[in-house]
Prior knowledge:
The chain is mainly alpha-helical and 72 residues long. The chain has two helices and two strands; from the N terminus they run E-H-H-E.
Amino acid sequence: MDRIDWNREALKQTKIQNTEVIQDNVKRLISLYPDKKEILNEYLQNQIDECEELENDYICTTLLLRQKNNCA
Length: 72
């Protein structure tokens, strides 16, 4: 088993990139479905809040499981 601890700066940069993509998509969807503006903006805010929480309140770790190779 291997472990990767995410660098906070890398996590922050990923958050910024992802938020920009989500914001662009929300703007596009609002232009197509103006009646859904409130729910789309709520979704965007939820994503921003979740990313802030991940960045500030948690340590992000990825565990990698490796298959044992039993070559004789």
